[in-house]
Amino acid sequence: MDWVRIVELLITSFTSIVVALVGAGFFKRMSEKQEKNRSRDSLMQQIKKDEIIHLAIRDVRRRYNADRVYIWQFHNGGNFYTKSPIQRISITYERHSDGLERKAEKNQNMLVSSFTTYVKDIVDGIMFYTDINDMSDIALRSLAHSNGTKAHAAVPIYDKDKNLVALLALDWVFSEIPSKYLKKDGNFTQDFKDELSKDCDTLDPYL
């Protein structure tokens, strides 16, 4: 009788272990499947956002007859030995006229400290040049020349909490700036500056 009881206990224990292992495997597979679905959904949401941004900046380029429009986004790129974050900036979105080389591939993970004057001028609302030879910063002027840029304009993009998250920039290389956006002295009109700033409102939710 005791042996029968022992055998029953062994069978019960073995069955419990098998059920537990099978259950664990099942839940693991379910968990992995859910994770894949979340990853796929997240990717699809990002793709939709990217499409919206690309369409939006395409319209911006066409409206102002610019040859290139692009977005600089701020991000972290590791840490210094002091543990403070390394602030970087990259071109994440770009649309341009046929025949122009993409700037995005050459402008990734750049140190923000190398663009302090540029960022400050954009935030201060003075990065509007119908002639880049009027740029006071020699380095910026030289960089613009190297890209074939004749005119340049850029505005800041803020999130809903008023944090600076990106920059929207336009280049004119061989196209003409529409006359309605130019004052008699050849500089950009205030309407142009206001319109370009409003364009950022449509981009902010997706960045």
Short description:
It contains four helices and six strands, in the order αβββαβαββα. The protein has 207 residues and is of the alpha+beta class.
Polypeptide structure, described:
- By secondary structure, the protein is an alpha+beta fold.
- It has one domain (49-206): 2-Layer Sandwich (Beta-Lactamase), CATH 3.30.450.
- It has four helices and six strands; from the N terminus they run H-E-E-E-H-E-H-E-E-H.
- The chain has helices spanning 2-63, 116-123, 138-146, 190-203; strands spanning 68-79, 85-96, 110-111, 128-129, 151-158, 164-172.
- The protein has a six-stranded antiparallel β-sheet with strand order 3-2-1-6-5-4.
- Helix 1 (2-63) runs antiparallel to helix 4 (190-203).
- The longest helix is centred in the first third of the chain and has 62 residues, at 2-63.
- It is elongated.
- The chain starts with a helix and ends with a helix.
- The model has no long low-confidence stretch (mean pLDDT 85).
